[in-house]
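Fold it.
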Amino acid sequence: MFWFAQLYKKVKTRIAYVIFFISMGVFLEVLQGFGSVRFFEYYDMLANTVGVVIAWLLTKGRLNNILFYFEKNIIQRAQQ
């Protein structure tokens, strides 16, 4: 979520990604419940959701363009 929120600046697109990643976390957790190696747990769904929301909130502040900053500095160093 942190990466996608920096690439797509429109609020509607970011909200769509929030919904997508939360849904993906729930879906994967349900799939794990069908297997015998991993288990279905509500706390995992909650942890996934909290992670998505925290990443989204971090990109609303100073970290909004941190990946672009690193990319710019890496390219400048590589060209020197």
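The helical segments are 2-7, 11-34, 42-58, 66-79.
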